[in-house]
Design brief:
single chain, alpha/beta, seven-stranded mixed sheet, four-stranded antiparallel sheet, 17 helices, disordered N terminus, binds pyridoxal-5'-phosphate, lyase, lipid metabolism, PyrdxlP-dep_de-COase
Length: 506
């Protein structure tokens, strides 16, 4: 897929482009050309996404008779073995954060014991609510609640909920602020101000809950720009956001300054510590430079921290925290008139997986402070070696000053081609854009002996290859390149929706 250089167009106001795009797409020839190009990109994806077609039985209808359990188990084992090799050997950015066999076996055993439990039925499974309350409390106290609560009555303490993941934690917080602002301030057209680097879950929340998302470009160090944030405030602003650290570049926003700005104006402030919540407290104790980011700052009113990332629990849990019970109560839902009885539910789901909550609890209490400290020590040491190794490659540079998510780009080479060459060597890195870069989120998988050395060796070889073959096009590199420069966002959005359709094809 070849695209002309559209750099010029990036300076045209977005609104004009949206109108231009609408009219352009209405021209049959343009439409046909777009469909053709989209089709070509998608058929490339389809081959990669559906490797089991033709090799495994596929089900579009229920089998008339149930298949034998043994046969199904063997099939699942085969799939797992095939798919685990890449992440197990540490070839993947993020994705699996612990991954040691004994740890996985333990978490699975806990899940198996509690797979039937559901905290929606608190009287049937009081263990599930005990686990949930304790996971929230342990996470809160790891993130400054002990200091923040000192001397305050219980209703002003840091509290929270367990959710299904970072996205739900963030969405719960935004919905809570929206309802809080409507009730206590009478704000009916709420806005939030957040750095361009904050996770798209905030835009998803904005989209779902009718909050305007005001994005502010980050500074030269890839951290949120405090002065620009101040300028973006309006009478309808209800909260500010900062990340600790941000997903793209792994840098920690100036949370102290941002949260103080919010506090002085009576606004909410959310620290997104989905990624760093279970690393930064230990990094700080290990002597790494970690600026304040948690409830020790009086302006921080909500936080998110993912148990299913560096908390090392099974996928499907995260913690959202609030300063005080009054704020959290705006998260809750109650129904008093339903013929099915009196109903209430604290988060988005009704029934919830008690087994996953038990697994999160069991992970936290078996890891303990010492376990998280050791894990963080290994991750941070490996990340430091990787960061220095990458910075030593003359064609590459590290973006910002990260701790354990290392983004790098190049002034002389197409970094997406480098990423593609790394892919050919088995490495699955995250492509970033605006500016073009890739990142590696360092996990315990990368702390295994030899992994970091192999990464750097392969990276040097990939850089050398791209340098020696400037004419080589690559398959995915142009798509990534396009995503960063194409001014018609609708075209890209349409493509992504078609991609999602593809996921649902048998
Ligand atoms: C992963 C992540 C999220 C979203 O979490 P999910 O569990 O994928 O929904 C939000 N913010 C940051 C900084 C993250 O790294």
């Amino acid at each position: 897929m070849e695209l002309p250089n559209l750099d010029l167009l990036t300076h045209v106001p977005q609104r004009w482009l949206e109108v231009a795009e609408k009219y352009l797409k209405a021209i049959p020839q343009v439409r046909a050309r777009l469909d053709k190009e989209t089709g070509a990109v998608l058929s490339h994806f389809e081959k990669r996404l559906k490797p089991y077609r033709g090799t495994l039985p596929a089900f579009e209808r229920l089998p008339a008779q149930g298949r034998p359990r043994e046969e199904v188990l063997r099939e699942l084992e085969g799939l797992e073995r095939r798919e685990e090799t890449r992440w197990k050997e540490g070839h993947v950015s993020g994705a699996v954060y612990h991954g040691a066999e004994d740890h996985i076996a333990f978490v699975n055993e806990v899940y198996a014991l509690h797979s039937q439990s559901n905290p929606l039925h608190a009287e049937l499974w009081p263990s599930a609510t005990k686990f949930e309350a304790e996971v929230v409390a342990m996470t809160a106290n790891m993130l400054g609640a002990t200091e923040a609560n000192a001397g305050l009555p219980p209703e002003q303490h840091i509290c929270g909920s367990l959710s299904s993941g970072g996205t739900e934690s963030i969405m719960l917080a935004i919905k809570t602020y929206r309802d809080w602002a409507r009730e206590t301030r009478g704000i009916t057209r709420p806005e939030m101000v957040l750095p361009s680097s904050a996770h798209p879950a905030f835009d998803k929340a904005a989209h779902y809950f009718g909050v305007k998302s005001v994005r502010v470009p980050v500074g030269a160090d890839y951290r949120a720009d405090v002065a620009a944030t101040r300028r973006a405030l309006t009478r309808n602003t209800i909260l500010l956001v900062g990340s600790a650290p941000s997903f793209p570049h792994g840098v920690i926003d100036p949370i102290a300054e941002l949260s103080e700005l919010a506090r002085k104006r009576g606004l909410g402030f959310h620290t997104d510590a989905c990624l760093g919540g279970f690393v930064l407290p230990w990094a700080k104790r290990l002597g790494y430079p970690v600026p304040p980011f948690d409830f020790q700052l009086p302006g921080v009113t909500t936080m998110s921290a993912d148990t299913h990332k560096f908390g090392y629990a099974a996928k499907g849990t995260s913690v959202v925290l609030y300063r005080g019970l009054a704020l959290r109560s705006h998260q809750y839902f109650t129904a008093t008139e339903w013929p099915g009885g009196i109903y209430f539910s604290p988060t988005f789901s009704g029934s919830r997986p008690g087994g996953l909550i038990a697994a999160a609890w069991a992970t936290l209490v078996t890891m303990g402070e010492a376990g998280y400290l050791e894990a963080s020590r290994h991750i941070l040491e490996t990340a430091k070696a990787l960061k220095e190794g990458i910075a030593a490659i003359p064609e590459l540079h590290v973006l910002g000053d990260p701790l354990f998510v290392i983004a790098f780009g190049s002034k002389t080479l197409d970094i997406y081609k480098v990423m593609e060459r790394m892919g050919a060597r088995g490495w699955d890195l995250n492509g970033l854009h605006k500016p073009p870069a890739v990142h590696l989120c360092v996990t315990l998988r990368h702390t295994q002996p030899g992994v970091a050395e192999r990464f750097l060796e392969d990276l040097r070889a990939a850089v050398a290859h791209v340098q020696a073959n400037p004419g080589e096009k690559g398959t995915m590199a142009p798509v990534y390149g396009m995503a960063g420069t194409v001014p018609f966002r609708g075209v890209l959005s349409d493509l992504l929706k078609k991609y999602m359709d593809l996921l649902y094809k048998v």
